[in-house]
Structure formats: structure tokens, C-alpha cells
């Protein structure tokens, strides 16, 4: 089975199971004897849904989920925010690195100017060596 259809099947199974669990919760919360038959049917559907999930799990053994995503879920956050947060952290780190590069370039330029005035002969040799390599 194609990976895309496997994910669709998994999502559909999880959606159906979630609805069934919600129905079971509603029926159990406001239980009345005449709803016993419906409750039994829903519980049987829930068991079938769990069995279906158990069957599907083998299709996803090679799927790796970052621990941070699971932490997001545990914290009640939308796991899709993980990607957004990673992107923002990468942008921030990129800006930091750009700043460091600019600072190092400025330091290099200042150092070269200072060396030109204090050690002109050595700097000439350095420039020659740079041009030959």
C-alpha cells in the first residue's frame, strides 16, 4: 500500500475512533438503562477501532517522530506549531551567525589595516602569498 494512502487510512481510523470514544463518554455520562444497547454497540466499535489501529501500526515502524513533537502534544500544543517554531529558531540563529560573520569581517579589516601600518613588509609578503595560492 502506498504511504500516502496508509497515512490517510490511519487518520481516518483515528478520527472514527475519536468520535466513537466521545460517543461512549457521552452515553456513559448520562447513562440510562434504555441506552445500554447503543453503549454496547459503541464499545464494540471502539474495540474494533483499536484492533484496526493495532493492525496499522506495523505500517509505521520506520516513521520517526522527534521527541519535541511529542512534548508539544503532552503540553497540549498543536504539533504543527513545532515546524513553525523550528523555522523561527533557524531564522534567529541565522541572524546571529550573520552578526558574528559581520563582526569577524570588521575585526579582520581592522586588523589588516593595523598590520599594514605597523608591519608593512610582513603584510606585503602576506599579500604575495595570498595571490599565489
Kindly summarize this structure in a few lines.
With 133 residues, the chain is an all-alpha fold.
Description:
This protein is mainly alpha-helical and 133 residues long. The protein is 81% helix and 0% strand. It has five helices and no strands. It has helices at residues 3-29, 36-56, 67-74, 80-118, 120-132. The longest helix has 39 residues, at 80-118. It is rod-shaped. The mean pLDDT is 91.
Cα(first) to Cα(last) distance is 57 Å
Topology as a string of helices (H) and strands (E): HHHHH
Structural class: mainly alpha
Strand content: under 5%
User: What is the makeup of the main sheet?
Assistant: none
Q: Helicity range of the residues?
A: over 70%
Mean pLDDT: 91
Overall number of strands: 0
Low-confidence stretches: none
Q: What shape does the CA trace take?
A: rod-shaped
Rg (C-alpha, Å): 31 Å
How large is the count of helical segments?
5
Amino acid at each position: 500500500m502506498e504511504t500516502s494512502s496508509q497515512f490517510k487510512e490511519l487518520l481516518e481510523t483515528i478520527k472514527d475512533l475519536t468520535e466513537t470514544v466521545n460517543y461512549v463518554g457521552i452515553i456513559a455520562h448520562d447513562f440510562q438503562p434504555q441506552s445500554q444497547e447503543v453503549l454496547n454497540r459503541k464499545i464494540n466499535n471502539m474495540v474494533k477501532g483499536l484492533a484496526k489501529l493495532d493492525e496499522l501500526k506495523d505500517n509505521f515502524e520506520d516513521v520517526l517522530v522527534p521527541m519535541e513533537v511529542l512534548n508539544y502534544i503532552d503540553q497540549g500544543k498543536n504539533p504543527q506549531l513545532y515546524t513553525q517554531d523550528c523555522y523561527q529558531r533557524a531564522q534567529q540563529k541565522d541572524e546571529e551567525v550573520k552578526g558574528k560573520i559581520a563582526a569577524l569581517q570588521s575585526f579582520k579589516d581592522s586588523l589588516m589595516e593595523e598590520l599594514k601600518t605597523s608591519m608593512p613588509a610582513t603584510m606585503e609578503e602576506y599579500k604575495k602569498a595570498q595571490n599565489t595560492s
